[in-house]
Amino acid sequence: MIRPVLIGMRSHPTSEQLQSTACSLIMTLSADEEAADIIGQAGGVQDILSTMRQFNSQPGICATCCGALWSLSVNESNARIVTEEKGLQDVCNAMETHADSSELIESACSAIWSLSLEDDNVDVLSDVAITLIIESMEKHVTRVKVVKSALMALASIVTCGEECAYRVLSPSNDVTGLKVITNAVNQHKNEVDIAESFCTLLLELTEYDDVVNELKSPSLRIKQIAMNIRKQFRSNEEISGATEVILSKFGVNAQRAPQRPPSARSRPRSAVRNR
């Protein structure tokens, strides 16, 4: 089934409907790791990027392409192809062009999450993606799926190094990243996915001692937010474990033995399977 889809894309490059349908099929098929590998070997990654560039003014098809890139790029070989083809910049361009489309922003953040595992993407992630993600979170603060995808993308980017962590704290001179993030989290206090994603981001940020000192700023209220999350979701083992680790960095005595959940870098494949 994969090859006929790709042949159709190459035979009708200007058909928006065909390209959109084909990209949706590829996104669905690539949730299977073996299929994702076959698609990559057959040139499917380049086909998706070609479609995205051909229809860069259409938010719907760009969103579908970003979704396909997210799913495909969980595969290491495909992520390398996207990186070599400068696909991360295409994703960032789409975010900037279609900043009002929550559907696109959600898919783009998910694609960035997968592509953040490639070391050659660090410069674009640090210089461009972080700012776009935080701006998008502020613009679409009421959208649970956007906030969740943005938090997970940021969490994974933070693992790239301390410079990226500081970029999240202060993406520009007039924006405090953590204030935007905590505002979004506070708007979704009852959403378990938001609590879990926020804790994942805090876990990665608190890996850097100097960043922990920044997080202790009273104006951010990070410790209080983490304590509230621990109390509200105490029956959730993953969130409870994460908050214990986070709060231990703030000098709070653990209510149970802190056990760090998996890193954000280890989660994209399971997220694709469970979407």
TrEMBL record:
**Domain LRRK2 ARM repeat, residue spans:** 5-158
- Region span, Disordered: 254-275
Going by the UniProt record, its keywords in alphabetical order are: ATP-binding, Kinase, Nucleotide-binding, Serine/threonine-protein kinase, Transferase
Specify the superkingdom.
Eukaryota
InterPro entries the record matches: ARM-like, ARM-type_fold, ARM_LRRK2, Armadillo
Q: What is its EC number?
A: 2.7.11.1
Start and stop residues of the ARM repeats? 43-87
Comp. bias (Basic residues)? 266-275
Catalysed reactions listed for this entry = L-seryl-[protein] + ATP = O-phospho-L-seryl-[protein] + ADP + H(+); L-threonyl-[protein] + ATP = O-phospho-L-threonyl-[protein] + ADP + H(+)
Report a single Gene Ontology molecular function: protein serine/threonine kinase activity
Q: Which Gene3D superfamilies match?
A: Leucine-rich Repeat Variant
Please note every region of biased composition (Low complexity): 254-265
Q: Under which name does UniProt file this protein?
A: non-specific serine/threonine protein kinase
> What is the source species?
Ciona savignyi
